[in-house]
Amino acid sequence: MERLVFAAKAFLLQRKRMARNLFSALPKSRPRADFPNGVLLAQSVSLLRSDEETAPALVDGKIHNIRNVIKKLDGVVFRAGEVFSFWRHVGRLTRAQGYALGRELREGCIIPQIGSGICQLTNAIYDAGMQAGLAAVERHRHSQIIKGSLAELDRDATVFWNYLDLRLKGTQNWQLQVAMDKTHLTVSIFGETKNPVAPKIRVYQAPARLGDCTQCGRTDCHSHVGDMPAPSRKTHLGIDEDWAEFSEWRKRDMKKGDRFVSTSDHAALTTKAINFFAKLRRRHILWMGARELRRAEKFSMRDGQHPYNWRKFPIPAAHNVRFNLIARHFAKKLDFSDTHLVIPQPLLVWFYLNGELAGREYDVLMSAMPMSEIEAELDRAMSRYGYHINGGHYSTPDGNAVTLGDYRAPEFLVEAERKALAGATKLVSPHAKILEWAGEKGEPLDWILPDPITPQTKVDATFEIFLAGASLGRKGIFDLRAALRNLDFDFRLLLVHSAVENNNFWDGIPTCHVNSFREGIARCDVAVLPAVVEHNPGGLLLAIASQKPVIASSACGLPENMNWQRADDAGELERALRQVAAATRTESRSL
Q1: For residues 539 and 517, is the Cβ–Cβ distance under 8 A?
Q2: Which residues, in sequence order, are CB contacts of 469 under 8 Å at separation 6+?
Q3: Which of 224, 300, 399, 589 could serve as a FRET partner for 14 with CA atoms 20 to 30 Å apart?
Q4: CATH fold of the domain at 233-444
Q5: Could you name the CATH architecture of 463-590?
Q6: Integer Cα distance of 552 and 573 in angstroms
């Protein structure tokens, strides 16, 4: 009966507020990443969890609900005099909208309710707003003051769809920014005019132990629920590009109760989507509603005629589209119990931009250096080789175009990846260069060597050198060419059929094409890869497994305990090639 009475009252009050809203339309601002000349006015920081929580499942639900609300609020901007309405921007919180059971303070009791727990967010918004000098147009206090909460300072603001709202306005343009990591919720208010005093930043502890419905013992109450187990789990996400090293690590890392979600569930869906969207590039980008994809379409082609287009779609942009689609699909499979994620690096930036990492702990399977580090390495290489920009193209002094200037990511992606990596708990990789960059966060894996290849019988005594990569600048071919031009013995350079820097790059150097990496390893006397950037040195691992000499740069990520020689420039590469050639001739004479 009590439940019915409350529902009837709420229904009438909701209809009354709906009628009032018809005659007082409020603005609805879209979230924006930028706020020109924004000045921090105030900030409110609060802990998400307490060691004294009685129902961790409801806390997980609360964090999940706040995560969904943040996607609608973070970055909204209001002009001077405009009224911010919480419910106007967030809308009703229902199970169909992806909200979960959280904790709601109702009539002095803590009860489970769909979409509840967001009062921690509204408390923080009100607190930061008051510190920033905003005016409270509408604000409601909680019915009970909980020790340790903002209610003790009269800084709380409860909401209930839709008749209990939080409404604020300011005398200057202002922006609301909301962020959440695995431990804290942070609400910041930015304005255009600097305050005469330093911005106020308050950090609040979590409220004291709450006696909620799972613990109070009143089984006759209409709101009573029994014990709620905490279903928190670690969720591994897998994509088609996963390395064997990650698959083996996942088998060791996964415990009972963890789950694995892979792209195999929706590979056909993704392929069809990419094929369709690649034909309708512009319309696709508008449909996706992502300003980022418009930028991603442009960043890989400086002249609009880059040779490595995929169905007239720039390869990096196509990858971005695909991984964004996969990330969105994965997000639909996650719920409040997925509190710890293991994310492949290609999906990381999209999980961050789509707000799925807020309030979650996560590890990253690192398959490449961060975009900022890659671009810095490529820029250093261009400077070292004397390249310059000529009419928008990167070129050598003799006018030949180079690929070291391609594949630059837009700044918003680089910054998003930087922030996402900073919030990760662990960075897992077998790549020595990545682990060196990761520092204490790095978790090293061993490279898995493939099955060895039986060497082919040589048709002549010519020393054969296999380039274990494409003939592109980022694979170190400028250093390799310079080293080969100084060799004074007979040799042959083996190349795979793949992309090339330009058609006459290897002029004057004896070359021969092979059909595959396996054929190149089987034929060669030494495998080389003096790469500027290299993610997965699969060809080198195959050569090491086949007991072939290997010369590589440190960028290839091979550990010191493997059988290989390091060469980071043309001089070192030339010396290493001479040593291997001399050893090969000595071995041939002894046979």
Answers
A1: yes
A2: 475, 476, 529, 531, 534, 539
A3: 224
A4: Rossmann fold (3.40.50)
A5: 3-Layer(aba) Sandwich (3.40)
A6: 8
One-letter amino acid for residue 38 of the chain: G
Strands (E), 99-227: 101-106, 109-114, 135-138, 167-169, 174-180, 184-191, 200-204
Q: How many CB atoms lie within 10 A of CB 411?
A: 12
Cα dihedral 513, 519, 520, 522 sign: negative
| Exposed / middle / buried, residue 312 (Cβ in 10 Å: 0-12, 13-18, 19+) | exposed
Tokens of 582: 């001399």
Q: What is the pTM of this model?
A: 0.84
Both tokens of 384, joined, read 């070292």
State the Cα–Cα distance between residues 140 and 105, nearest whole angstrom.
13
User: Dihedral sign, CA of 506, 507, 511, 513?
Assistant: positive
pLDDT along the chain (591 residues), means of 10: 64 70 72 75 88 74 93 91 91 89 68 84 93 91 67 79 88 92 92 68 56 56 58 87 92 91 61 50 39 42 36 58 83 90 95 93 96 90 72 51 73 91 96 96 96 84 93 92 93 90 88 93 95 94 96 95 94 95 75 51
What pLDDT does residue 309 have?
40
Q: For residue 45, which of 155, 139, 138, 146 has the smallest C-alpha distance?
A: 155
**Domain span(s) for CATH 3.40.50.2000 in the chain:** 463-590
Handedness of CA 499, 503, 507, 510 (dihedral sign): positive
